[in-house]
Amino acid sequence: MQIDLRSDTVTRPTPGMLKFMFNAKVGDDVFKEDPSINELEQKAASIFGKEAGIYCPSGTMTNQTAIKVHTQPGDELICDATAHVYNYEGGGIAFNSGVQTKLIQGDNGRFTSKQLEQALHPYADWLPKTSLVVIENTSNRGGGSYYTLDNVKKISQVCKKNKLNLHLDGARIFNALAETGDNAKEYGKACDSISICLSKGLGAPVGSVLIGNAEFVAKARRIRKLLGGGMRQGGYLAAAGIYALDNHVKRLKEDHQRAKRIAGILKNKSYVKSMLPVETNIIIFSLDNSMPADTFTNALKKDNILISMIGNNALRIVTHLDFNDKMLKTVETALKKI
Ligand SMILES: *Cc1c(COP(=O)(O)O)cnc(C)c1O
Fold it and tell me: Which end of the chain has fewer CB within 10 Å, C or N?
């Protein structure tokens, strides 16, 4: 059996999820007539205490839609240098919104309200108009690091004071909430819009939801349509999201515990040069010259274990719903041999 730890996106629907999908009630969502999509959108919004949500095929689409709604061409967006919206969405900020980006060099993907204040500039005809701040929680390239709620609240205050909108790329917000125990509704209060991914740790095959107030979501529906994301009987897919929110949120801590176990073994390896703090389900580490990254990944591959190389001799392991304790044992045994 293969053990795939390249990403938490590799999960397959569970039998329970498939059964739930199969029995979904559907309709034409472009006419807002798909009961399952409507239910998912409302469910996701209410978790965060927001008015409305909009279901999209991907997290890239929810993020890019939010950016388009919050900005005008020529505006400036502020995010961390490692941000997914900046690095891994195909240059979409420029392509879709005509917006330029100011990057903050944060701490493993997170920045402080003070750093945000320093990145702001006064209003002038010749300066770009800053209109949007994006935070990512947990941070993917930051090794699954999470914000404290206190930091998010302070960032939100700076945004409000300066009339900036705040978007949360919450692809893995439930991983952060599982660790901190923070109330999701506090994030709803702090952020103008929130994107959540159902297809990462939550184990749905497809889908993300963009959450905000009713006016924001009405605008987002226009943008989703022009990006080609208006789906018809998508309720079969949305049902997977409903099932994921009902059944797969509480278990996320298991993924974090397994990631910490793997990190514990790696830390004792002489050839592991550095590792980002393992706070949730992502382990990012680098190897020294005595162990080329492909030698390491090939050794694991012999035991049917897949992990990913992310450049500069750095490697990434991500735990998820389809990785259990038995597989963890296999991985531990394999790592001890290398
Ligand atoms: C995965 C991810 C997204 C969305 O990616 P899609 O593959 O388009 O669903 C957005 N932000 C972060 C931080 C992610 O990890």
Answer: N
Question: Which pLDDT score, from 0 to 100, does residue 305 have?
Answer: 98
Domain co-membership, 133 together with 193:
yes
Q: How many domains does the chain have?
A: 2
pTM of the predicted model, to two decimals?
Answer: 0.97
The residues that bridge with 305 in the sheet, in sequence order, are 3
Atom of ligand 1 nearest to the CA of 63: 10
Q: According to the model, what pLDDT value does residue 1 have?
A: 85
pLDDT digits (tens, 9 = 90+) for 229-257: 999 999 999 999 999 999 999 999 999 99
pLDDT tens track for 98-136: 999 999 999 999 999 999 999 999 989 999 999 999 999
Atom of ligand 1 nearest to the CA of 61: 8
Report the separation in Å between the CA atom of 337 and the middle of ligand 1, taken as the mean of its atom positions: 34
Q: 152 and 258 share a domain?
A: no
Distance CA(111)–CA(120), nearest Å, equals 13
> What range defines the domain where residue 31 resides?
13-247
Burial 222-260 (b: 16+ CB within 10 A, else e): ebbeebebbbebbbbbbbbbbbbbebbbeebebbbebbe
